[in-house]
Amino acid sequence: MTAAVIGFAILILGLFLLIGKIIRVKTPAVQRLFLPSSIIGGFLLLALGPQVLGKFIGPENGLFTADMLTIWAGLPGLLISIVFATLFLGQELPKPKRAVELAGPQLSLGIALGSGQYVVAGILAVAILVPLLGAEPMVGALLEIGFEGGHGTAAGMRPTLEELGYSSGADIAIGIATVGVVGGIVIGIALINWAVRTGKTEIVTSNVEASIDEQKGLYAEDEQYPAGTLTSRPASVEPLSLHVAIVALAILIGWLILEGLKLIEQALWSDTIEIFAFVPLFPLAMLGGVAVQVMADKVGAGRLIDAQMMLRIQGLALDFLIIAALATLSLEAIGSNIGSFLILCTAGIALNVGLLLWLAPRIIPNYWFERGIGDFGQSMGVTATGLILMRIVDPDAESPAFEAFGYKQLVFEPFFGGGLVTAAAVPLIYQFGPWPLLIGMAVLFVVALVGGLVIYGSAAKEQRQKDKERQHASSSS
Fold it and tell me: Which of 59, 255, 364, 373 has the fewest Cβ atoms within 10 angstroms?
């Protein structure tokens, strides 16, 4: 396969990403769903490829060559390491204790959502999906991979799932992620309007609707948002090139960590259990990013790493990852596992909505809805979904929602939604069956619930009582 073929395949992805953006700008129905251009373009490529056009009209591969499809299928596994390596680069890294103190209730809610998805899916797997529908036991990990992890994690886990003989699992997870992104926005906005009508919100007091520019995904002409800060003079090295090189270093450090763990495992316990042999690179690339940031701060070079520039690199990788993953999605795999797919999606949505409405007001002392809706959005797909919902319900960032959410991410991301727990879940089920992971996640789920209620419940209850008294006094006057 030549470099020209690889380059042309990437050019086609870029073209359809642009077409997806044009459709977003020109189509009101798509705007209201807040669908990212990468998802729109990915669905177009899927329709024009072997899964749809090739099956019903021909030729066999649709409008694309077999080489292009092979390149697209391999891209997500590479790009996901870039996405995760940039998560903490350019960010201030507070001590875990301080982060927990600032966002403790948020962390309890986030862990309950993440571990709860494993619990619900695990129970469904052992009770229904495996014995009655003939699913693989590893199906119990797909809900968290798709919902909490999103398209990036689902695509990034494909090599591991294929190596363990469950290639259809990646397609199911990507399908779940798609439901999560769309459902997160649609259900999230419906919940916001319900909360406004019932007085659950403290900032927005009338039914909300995003502006036309927000729906189109554009900035207004008078809005100015810099893409990043130049931290080096271009005559020396292009600042974007510098940041890409830093990302490369982070990924290489992650690779060295993973290879070291594999060597230790081979030397000590590989005869009885193998976990790191099946763990993908991307969660270790995230740790590599943390290591690079810590080293840069230690030597006084932290100012050279710009957080906004890292977000642009992350966004570029994620857009191309999503469009490539959807372009090569196997509809046949989802169709042959439609029962498991629908049951997992329904159960996951019910869990996420239930925890938002029941747990969040009981552990978050103030602005519980403004703060909880961000975690709901993230638990349905990607962090961006949570940020969109928080921006709608708190447009001027008057509540501590964004700050608490950000600090919670620093503790939460290394484990769930593509972190170490997500990466290890599938190999653990493969090695030991569904029960050890299910029991472990059930214990963590109970700890998150009980701990949140015990530690933060009284303060939240006291605040709710004060809010009721204030509302009663206001209505009486």
Answer: 59
